[in-house]
Design brief:
Blueprint: H1 3-10, H2 13-83, H3 89-102, E1 106-112, E2 118-121, H4 133-140, E3 147-149, E4 153-154, E5 161-162, E6 164-170, E7 176-184, H5 186-194, E8 202-208, E9 212-218, E10 230-231, H6 235-242, E11 247-253, E12 260-267, E13 273-280, H7 281-284, H8 286-324, H9 328-358, E14 363-368, E15 373-376, H10 378-384, H11 388-391, H12 406-419, E16 421-429, E17 435-446, E18 452-461, H13 463-477, H14 487-504, E19 508-515, H15 518-525, H16 527-544, E20 550-555, E21 558-563, H17 570-589, E22 592-594, E23 597-599, E24 603-610, H18 617-633, E25 639-641, H19 644-660, E26 669-678, E27 683-694, E28 698-700, H20 702-711, H21 715-733, E29 743-747, H22 750-753, H23 758-769, E30 776-780, H24 789-802, E31 805-811, H25 818-821, E32 828-831, H26 833-836, H27 843-858, E33 862-866, H28 871-879, E34 884-886
Parallel strand pairs: 24-25, 27-29, 29-30, 30-31, 31-32, 32-33, 33-34
Antiparallel strand pairs: 1-2, 1-7, 3-6, 4-5, 6-7, 8-9, 8-13, 9-10, 11-12, 12-13, 14-15, 14-18, 16-17, 17-18, 19-21, 19-24, 20-21, 22-23, 26-27, 26-34, 27-28
Helix pairs in contact: 2-3, 2-8, 2-18, 2-19, 8-9, 15-16, 16-17, 21-23
């Protein structure tokens, strides 16, 4: 058998069909591999995009919660000042409202006691331990974290969803004193989520740790709605919640709208929430499907061409077999022609596949060994603006922007020579002259001899990615209104400044600035002008300080200035900081023209110096904050430096309050009594006065611990002890005919009187002790009558029905309105000692006392004067018609054993 017949038998139609099939399958596998690689590439890009967006939203939310946490710490310090008597109750309530108004994320804020009482609140009815198991759990968790954010809850009555942010206030022994609780504003959280740009097919949601939807937004729902609370449960989400990873991605159908999406979840460190960002698979796989259909059509065309070729081959093969016996030479020529035709068709198919691969979503160009461009694709023209005929024969230097020096390109060529590949970020220039960032990859093509034949480069425009990165950085570290650094960036710079002061030995300072009357302007003229005023103030502050100093806005009308490198001498640094502070105060006072309105504000500035790392960032900010409140207390438009005695006073007040909580069980309280006499000098009763004998401090003045008990809501148990002890003494006196007519006056504070169940408490004490209620006289002050007079009258009438009498204490120093005197069931008016003391020397005091005595007689009320220290005082009062007296002239307060009855 000849070689020609062997070849003829081997290239039979059957073998040709098998060969074409193998080639087609190989080609198909190659296409599948490429499509699979491109699919994973698209999916990785979608995953990176969703991860970046999830990180951005998480940073937004953590920045918001960080601001909330620092404000909660500020409220805690206010609470400490209130306990130290540095801050009045009403001032605390006003400052809570200011805090709430200055922080957009807060809806309401309150200071709660573990027993369920409210120290102060912007909306008292919005907070309750009984309705919030989460607050109860936080209050009982003595070893828990300092602050916490709640999952999504719903109001029991209305079903309204809400979120809480709470901070534990502990005493020196680590025991819980109170909770600062803020109800987070749903509208502000919705506003934060709405700031994120949402492209086609994207979605973003915030879930709490129980997988309930807090906020959800997508391209179909351009604006997020209010808090939703809808529960979501998927296998991937549950696995992510149970895992310890912070961020994870998965692909599945959305349980909310049914669309197939790539999801990336990011857990928040500052709250039991997670951010879920999704991108529709139909969007990010758009290019993949376009390539898929293009390759599919190409393969089908190739298959059709191959089928036609095989069919033609069969026909030629039959004809060749028929003619072979007669014309062998002709058969050889036909076979050669067939082989040439097959090679040509195969080459055409390969060129078509290469052309399809060249037209990718990335820009591509091919340069020869001399670095002259020989081919570009359409995407290259779209990105650079150059048509193919404009760049052929040119070098890629045509695209240079001039931003990179010769060393940059020298390093690029060195790496290409050594490794045959280079990739990196390059700033190039479009045909229009626009300079833009691109990601460039260059590969070297060599022949079998190792010589360079071509350079193949791919490029992509990363302008949008760079802009997104810049936007994320701006939102994370700068205030959106003024453009100043926010709290997060301030803390970063403050930490760096601490290290600099320790290394270089110089002093730096932090100034806490609060605008004094900004809220009035904001409420009266509107938020638009308020925002414009804040921008103007920010510009003025920035114009005063040096380039290496920092002006930051913490929120609302609160600004912080950090002065760096004030010198190594503390006194000189103090003078420098004071000079800058005075300049800031002067600048703030200058009128500001805002849209035709001439506005004027002043500022209160608190300053603290720091040197080395003896204290942390949080302590420095708290010191400046405390000093600022001292400046406000000094009359505003002032500055004060932080004094360590402020902190010591806060700590001492906290310790005193902790001791006060155990004063009854430790039996440290005693009752002193001061006699009350009639015009004949006979003792008709006594006033009960509580005293505290502290084991280490000695006698604590009632002027110190009574206000502290009021502020800490401990006046209830203290007052109950006084009431019970006084009634036991009444019952004991009732057994002796000589003391049976005596009465005891017990002071009742407004907070104690307003307590739920006060009437029942008095009734129970009278029943248990057996005291005569007609011998019990409750002394109330005019401040009790400032709120809800109807409820006060009703409660007094209930006690009067029991037989209890009432005396109005310190009359003339408070509200002093005849409108309530004629409505209250009073038995006695008590003239305050401040009027009695100077009645002989001050005509004004004498006139007031005469008026009070006349008023009491006209209302048929008894009248008694306290502070009677001389016989002359007593005689003058007697001559004016006052027939009952109390004061040092008759007796000083003392234990019951020392009384002369």
């Amino acid at each position: 058998m000849t070689l020609r017949s062997l070849i003829g038998n081997w290239m039979s139609p059957r073998r040709a069909t098998w060969s074409a099939g193998v080639m087609f399958v190989g080609l198909l596998l190659l296409v599948v591999w490429e499509m699979r690689h491109f699919y994973h590439n698209q999916q990785q890009q979608a995953q990176a995009h969703t991860a970046a967006n999830a990180e951005m939203v998480a940073q937004w939310m953590e920045s918001v919660l960080d601001a909330s946490r620092h404000s909660l710490q500020g409220v805690a310090e206010l609470y400490r000042l209130r306990q130290n008597q540095s801050l009045a109750q009403q001032d605390l309530a006003n400052l809570l409202n200011r805090r709430r108004d200055s922080l957009s994320v807060w809806q309401d804020v309150a200071v709660l006691l573990p027993e369920g009482g409210i120290v102060a609140a912007t909306a008292p009815g919005s907070f309750s331990f009984d309705d919030s198991p989460w607050l109860q759990a936080l209050a009982s968790n003595d070893a828990g974290s300092e602050s916490a954010v709640s999952p999504l809850y719903r109001e029991a009555d209305s079903g309204t969803p809400y979120l809480l942010h709470a901070l534990r206030i502990e005493n020196g022994g680590g025991e819980l004193e109170a909770l600062v609780v803020a109800r987070l504003s749903p509208g502000y959280i919705v506003h934060v989520v709405n700031q994120m740009p949402v492209r086609r097919g994207e979605s973003v949601a915030i879930l709490d740790i129980t997988a309930r939807v807090v906020i959800q937004r997508s391209d179909q729902q351009r604006e997020a709605e209010a808090l939703r609370g809808k529960a979501v449960s998927t296998e991937q989400l549950n696995a992510f919640l149970d895992s310890s990873v912070v961020s994870d991605s998965w692909v599945r159908q959305s349980p909310l709208d049914g669309d197939q999406r790539m999801f990336t979840g990011r857990k928040l460190q500052a709250a039991p929430w997670l951010v879920i960002v999704g991108e529709n698979t139909t969007v990010y796989l758009h290019d993949w499907w376009r390539r898929f259909w293009a390759l599919l059509i190409g393969i089908l065309l190739l298959l059709a061409l191959g089928s036609l070729t095989l069919r033609h081959y069969r026909q030629l093969y039959v004809a060749e077999q028929t003619l072979r016996e007669h014309r062998n030479r002709l058969s050889e020529e036909v076979a050669a022609r067939k082989e040439m035709q097959q090679a040509s068709e195969l080459k055409a198919a390969q060129l078509k596949i290469a052309a399809l691969a060249f037209e990718t979503h990335l820009g591509m160009f091919i340069a020869d060994a001399n670095n002259r461009i020989v081919q570009v694709n359409d995407t290259f023209s779209e990105i650079t603006g150059y048509r193919e005929e404009e760049v052929l024969g040119q070098t890629p230097a045509l695209l240079n922007s001039g931003r990179h020096d010769a060393d940059f390109y020298r390093a690029m060529w060195q790496q290409l020579d050594e490794s045959g590949r280079w990739q990196g970020e390059v700033w190039n220039q479009r045909k229009s002259g626009e300079v833009y960032p691109q990601w460039l990859t260059i590969s070297v093509v060599r022949n079998d001899a190792g010589e360079v034949t071509h350079y193949v480069a791919t490029l992509s425009d990363i302008t949008q990615r760079k802009a997104a990165e810049k936007e994320i950085h701006q939102l994370a570290f700068f205030d959106s209104l003024t453009g100043l650094p926010n709290r997060r960036l301030l803390i970063d710079r403050l930490e760096a400044a601490l290290k600099d002061t320790q290394r270089e030995g110089h002093y730096s300072a932090v100034m806490f600035i609060d605008l004094d009357n900004f809220k009035t302007i904001n409420d009266s003229l509107g938020h638009y002008l308020g925002d414009a005023l804040l921008n103007a103030v920010a510009a003025r502050l920035s114009g005063i300080i040096r380039d290496n100093d920092t002006v930051a806005r913490l929120g609302g009308d609160e600004f912080v200035v950090m002065l760096h490198k004030l010198g190594s001498n503390e006194q000189a640094a103090t003078h420098s900081a004071e000079a800058v502070g005075q300049k800031l105060l002067k600048t703030l006072l200058e009128p500001i023209d805002v849209d035709g309105h001439m506005l004027q504000v002043s500022g209160s500035i608190g300053i603290t110096l720091f040197h080395g790392e003896e204290v942390g960032v949080s302590a420095i900010l708290q010191q400046a904050d405390l000093a600022m409140y001292q400046a406000k207390a000094a009359g505003r438009n002032a500055l004060r430096f932080f004094d360590p005695t402020m902190q010591a006073a806060v700590i001492d007040c906290a310790q005193l309050e902790a001791d006060l909580r155990h004063v009854i069980e430790r039996q440290e309280l005693t009752l002193f009594y001061q006699t009350q006499v009639n015009a004949h000098g006979d003792v008709v009763g006594v006033e009960a006065l509580v005293r505290w004998e502290h084991p280490s401090r000695g006698v604590v003045s009632p002027g110190v611990f009574i206000p502290l008990a009021e502020e800490s809501h401990l006046i209830g148990p203290v007052g109950a002890w006084v009431m019970e002890t006084a009634c036991e003494q009444l019952a004991q006196w009732a057994r002796d005919p000589s003391t049976e007519p005596l009465s005891i006056a017990v002071n009742v504070s407004p907070n104690q009187f307003r307590q739920v169940g006060f009437v029942e408490q008095v009734e129970t004490v009278l029943a248990q002790t057996g005291a005569n209620p007609q011998r019990l006289k409750l002394e109330v002050t005019e401040s009790l009558l400032m709120e809800d007079l109807e409820a006060v009258c009703e409660r007094m009438e209930q006690l009067r029905e029991l037989g209890v009498r009432f005396s109005l204490d310190d009359f003339g120093t408070g509200y002093s309105s005849l409108a309530y005197l004629k409505r209250l069931p009073l038995d006695q008016l008590k003239i305050d000692q401040s009027f009695v003391r100077d009645v002989l020397d001050d005509p004004a005091d004498a006139a007031i006392v005469r008026t009070v005595i006349a008023l009491a007689h006209s209302l048929e009320l008894e009248v008694i004067a306290e502070g009677v220290e001389t016989q002359a005082h007593r005689d003058w009062l007697y001559s004016e018609g006052c027939m009952a007296y109390q004061g040092y002239w008759f007796s000083r307060p003392g234990p019951v054993e020392t009384l002369s009855l």
